[in-house]
Each structure stands twice: as structure tokens, then as C-alpha cells.
Design goal:
With about 500 residues, the protein is mostly helical. Helices cover about 75% and strands about 0% of the residues. A two-stranded antiparallel sheet has the order 1-2.
Length: about 500
């Protein structure tokens, strides 16, 4: 019986957990609720992926109202993969969270933090699972509002400013998205993705439909932090508590990229987006700009959280670049990078959270020689950094292999060169941290520092090991991504 309701449970379990965490008001109990909730949701995500692999597309009608009248959760390989990413990362971070949150957030706010954490998880899963344009907007706001609160709970007063900046940009993005969805509704009279796609096919040149593509691209582009709409992201990542930064960097932008992919390929269709509109050209230019501009800025950053934040902007550029290739191979690169980037950036930010826990700072000048006293932590950071560069044997290489292959398939050898060249810039910003951590001599105070407790080390090590394992054997991640990409190019199912 439970198996029939897994799609809705993946959203409602963390939402109910958030309610319980709010009611108990005790940080340790709220953490226990969060741990149980995230583990249960991760198990549900595995069951959902297994079901999709066996049965194919799963449709779940909410409240007994058949689609398109009622809200539908429609699950295929693409969003099943995204739900697994969100749920697995959330569950891995939760054991780490107890020690980190105790150190960075006031005790009377712990329960609120875990409430927002679970609400964010519920909203992200809802965005991935829903087959309804307005329902996606609702979950987009649930995840965003909870994110604003998590950022504001940071130690610095600047956390409030960063949360406010994100709120303004997020509100603008949500407004653009809902205008685009409204334009679709005026033309089709429906918000169900499948139904809208079928009705659009009868009037593909309607100006309102074409305009909605622009509004939705800008709206989701703000949520994705697509260059040059990324200005909110560096401060948000740098000023948020370490746990919030790790969660957001590993999950939030990935879900937004998925939503863009879903609307482009399943709702509007390949011809309307990539043939009738200049989406390929626009995304291609912005993606390449992100890959180079953000990477160059990262080279000169002193704060390693901001350094990795700009790295995330560049990595989003790789994801949107795969979309702009408008091919199965390119889209495979995008989808596999959703999973791979979650692993590498999750591991990197958890390592920095451990550094902040031990020395109270993540500035490069304060990390001189820290690799000698925190070898496991900084070893994990090095592996995550190698993944960002795209070194063979890591997950980053797998993603960039598919993007380079997609570029060669289109005869764009120059683009393949740019992908490799932009990846080499990562050598410099990762190298700066590695040089300071491993080749500089630690001072007297640093001699007293050591690796964090096991509860923080284990999640970090698991994600780091995943960066290597799925880099050596990409049959699962790339296999699912390839099947999902092929299905999306086949149209609505």
C-alpha cells in the first residue's frame, strides 16, 4: 500500500517532520526528528527510482481528482534522479548538522533551523515531482522562503543582508516564473505539464506562448544563478551557516536546472525552444561567460566559501551548456552533472564547515598549514577540488566528458576547447587553497587543531568516496542520466 503513495510521501514526510520540529521547540529533539525524517525520505526516493526503472513513468493523482483537472505528480527517470539527489544529500548532511549547528547557531534557534531545513527539502522534492506549473511555483516558494530563514540564521549580521538580497532576487525570479505560467494558462486553459504540451502543439506560434518562454527562462535563471543573474549567490553561500550552505550548494540549483529542463523539453518541445527561438544562442553565450567569468573571480577570492560559490556559478554554466547543445549527449552531460556536482560541492562545503568549526574562519590566510593538522578534512577537500577540475577518476571528468563529446558531435571543436580551458582555471583557485593548507607551515595555534568529530567526518568521507566511486564507475549515474535524456528528447510520455 505504501508503495502506491511514494510520490506524495516524498513530499509530505519532510513537511510533517518540519511541523513536528516546530512543535517540540527543543534543538536536540528537532535534530532527531530531522534525522529520522531525512533517512525515511531517502529510502522513499530509492523505492521511487526502483519503481520507475521497473514500471516506467509513474502518475499519481492528488486528492482523487484525475489530471488535468487535479494536480498530478508525474515521475520519470529525470525527476526520480533529482529526488534521490535531494533526499540522499539531505540525509547525509543531517548527522553532520548536530555539531555544526550547535557551534554556529544560537541554541534557541536550533529547532527553527531544522524546521526550515526539512521544509526546504520538502519544497525541492515537490518541485521535482509535480506535473503542474502552478504547483511547481508553490513548492519553489516553500523552498525559497525556508532558504531565506536558514541564511538569516548565520552568525554574522551580514547574514541578514544576504538573506534580504536573496529574498529580493528570489521574489523577482518567482514573479517572472508565475507570469510565464500565467501566459501559458491564458492560451491553454490548463496548468498540467502534459495537457499544456498537447494544447501548445496545436498553436505553437502563439505570441503569448513564445513570450512565456522568455519569462520562465529569466525566472528560473534567477533561481539557478545563471550568469549574469547570479549576484545573490556568493553572499548567500558565504554568510549562511555551514550546513545550510552545503545543502543549498548540493541541491537547490540542481532542482532549478531540472525544472528548466522539464519545461523546455516536456512542455514547450524541442522545436519551439531550440528551433523557433534563439534559446541555443542565448544559453550558449551565457554558459560560456559563466564558465570563465565566475572561475576567474574565484581565483582572487580570499574567503573559500565565496570561492566555492563562484565555482558553483561556473558549474551551473556547464549544466546550462549541456542544455544549449540540444542533443541527447549534451543533455546527458547536464543531468549527470546534477548528481556529480551535488557530490563534489557537498563534500567541499562540508570540509569547509569542519574548518570553520575548528578555527572559526574559512579565509585562506587563516588556513595556513591546516592540512597537516586536519589531514582527513583537507584530504576530502582535495578530492572534491580535483572533481571540480575534472581530473580523470573523479565525477567531474565524467560530466565534462559528455559535454565535450556533445560539442564534438555538433562539430563545435572550439566549444570543446573552451570547456577544457575553463576547467583548467579551476586548477588555480583549488590550487590556492591546497597550497595554503598543505605547503605552508602551521603556526603555534594551529598545532592545537585537529579533525572534527566522527559525526562530521563520516558524511564528508561518504561524499568524497562517492566522487571517486562514481568517477571510476559511472554506469549508474550516467546510465540513468542517458536514459532520462533520451526519454526527454522523445517528448512527453
Amino acid at each position: 500500500m505504501i508503495a502506491q503513495h511514494v510520490p506524495i510521501l516524498a513530499v509530505m514526510v519532510p513537511m510533517f517532520g518540519a511541523l513536528l520540529a516546530t512543535l517540540v521547540r527543543r534543538g536536540d529533539v528537532a535534530w532527531a526528528i530531522g534525522l529520522a525524517t531525512t533517512l525515511a525520505t531517502a529510502a522513499l526516493a530509492v523505492l521511487l527510482l526502483q519503481r520507475v526503472l521497473i514500471e516506467g513513468v509513474v502518475s499519481y493523482a492528488i486528492g482523487g481528482w484525475a489530471p488535468p483537472v487535479g494536480i498530478e505528480y508525474r515521475v520519470d527517470l529525470a525527476n526520480a534522479l533529482v529526488v534521490l539527489i535531494v533526499s540522499a544529500i539531505s540525509a547525509l548532511i543531517m548527522p553532520y548538522a548536530r555539531t555544526s549547528v550547535n557551534a554556529e547557531i544560537a541554541s534557541d534557534q536550533h529547532a527553527w533551523f531544522y524546521t526550515m531545513y526539512l521544509l526546504c527539502m520538502s519544497g525541492l522534492n515537490g518541485i521535482a515531482l509535480t506535473g503542474d506549473a502552478f504547483n511547481a511555483f508553490v513548492f519553489l516558494e516553500i523552498s525559497s522562503l525556508s532558504t531565506y530563514v536558514m541564511i538569516a540564521l548565520g552568525q554574522s549580521r551580514r547574514s541578514l543582508l544576504s538573506a534580504y538580497q536573496y529574498l529580493i532576487m528570489g521574489t523577482i525570479g518567482a514573479t517572472f516564473y508565475v507570469i510565464g505560467a500565467g501566459l501559458l494558462f491564458t492560451v491553454t486553459g490548463s496548468l498540467n505539464f502534459v495537457d499544456v504540451a498537447e494544447r501548445i502543439a496545436t498553436s505553437p506560434y502563439d505570441r503569448a506562448v513564445l513570450t512565456s518562454i522568455a519569462f520562465i527562462t529569466v525566472g528560473i535563471g534567477l533561481k539557478v544563478a545563471l550568469f549574469p543573474l547570479h549576484v545573490w549567490l556568493p553572499n548567500a553561500y558565504a554568510k549562511a551557516p555551514s550546513v545550510a550552505t552545503a545543502l543549498l550548494a548540493a541541491t537547490a540549483t540542481k532542482v532549478a536546472v531540472y525544472l528548466l529542463v522539464r519545461l523546455y523539453f516536456s512542455v514547450y518541445g524541442i522545436e519551439m525552444v531550440f528551433v523557433r527561438q534563439p534559446v541555443v544562442e542565448v544559453l550558449l553565450v551565457l554558459s560560456v561567460a559563466a564558465m570563465f567569468f565566475a572561475s576567474f573571480v574565484a581565483v582572487f577570492e580570499i574567503n573559500t566559501k565565496r570561492l566555492l560559490a563562484y565555482s558553483s556559478v561556473a558549474q551551473v554554466g556547464y549544466m546550462t551548456l549541456g542544455i544549449s547543445l540540444a542533443s541527447v549527449t549534451g543533455l546527458t552531460g547536464t543531468l549527470v552533472h546534477l548528481a556529480n556536482h551535488a557530490m563534489m560541492k557537498g563534500a567541499a562545503f562540508l570540509a569547509l564547515g569542519a574548518v570553520a568549526y575548528r578555527i572559526g574562519s574559512v579565509n585562506i590566510d587563516r588556513m595556513q598549514g591546516i592540512g597537516r593538522v586536519m589531514p582527513i578534512t583537507m584530504g576530502c577537500f582535495v578530492v572534491a577540488g580535483l572533481s571540480l577540475i575534472g581530473v580523470p577518476g573523479t565525477v567531474g571528468f565524467v560530466s565534462k566528458y559528455y559535454l565535450v563529446l556533445g560539442a564534438f558531435e555538433k562539430g563545435w571543436w572550439w566549444l570543446a576547447f573552451l570547456i577544457v580551458a575553463s576547467s583548467l582555471i579551476a586548477v588555480f583557485y583549488v590550487g590556492r587553497v591546497v597550497e595554503a593548507a598543505w605547503f605552508a607551515k602551521p603556526d603555534v595555534e594551529m598545532a592545537q587543531v585537529k579533525d572534527p568529530p566522527l559525526s562530521m567526518l563520516v558524511p564528508m568521507i561518504v561524499l568524497t568516496a562517492a566522487c571517486v566511486f562514481f568517477g571510476l564507475d559511472a554506469s549508474l549515474t550516467a546510465g540513468i542520466a542517458g536514459q532520462a535524456a533520451a526519454a526527454l528528447f522523445g517528448g512527453v510520455q
